[in-house]
Amino acid sequence: MQRKRAIFSDKQPEYRYMPLGNGFADVFIYKFIEEITDKEGNVSNLYEFNEFRVNTQEITEEMISGNPLDYLDYSAEEEAIALEDRVSAIEEAIVELAEVISGD
Questions:
Q1: What is the CA radius of gyration of the chain?
Q2: Whole-number Å distance between alpha carbons of 62 and 81
Q3: Alpha-carbon distance 14 to 27, whole Å?
Q4: Is 41 helix (H, G, I), strand (E, B) or coil?
Q5: Which residue among 16, 71, 84, 96 is the one 20 to 30 A from 50 at the CA level?
């Protein structure tokens, strides 16, 4: 995964963990890179960041707050791929079962 970069006018916290009320939370991880000063003297802050959605039972705010940078490269897509594989296997099993039942 390639990290994303963003410029903010204000300093960012190391993370934001925002529960959605449905058992999931949106998580933002920020790693400060440098201050940038433009020609007019305005100062901005460059960050690398990651954003993802988690099941609050699997990844808690306490886990994130312990060391936010451990999650800078986290990808929820890895879990989604595993889920897709599982669904695909179930679909194949259903087709095979239907063939056995119908006698084809």
A1: 21
A2: 26
A3: 11
A4: coil
A5: 84
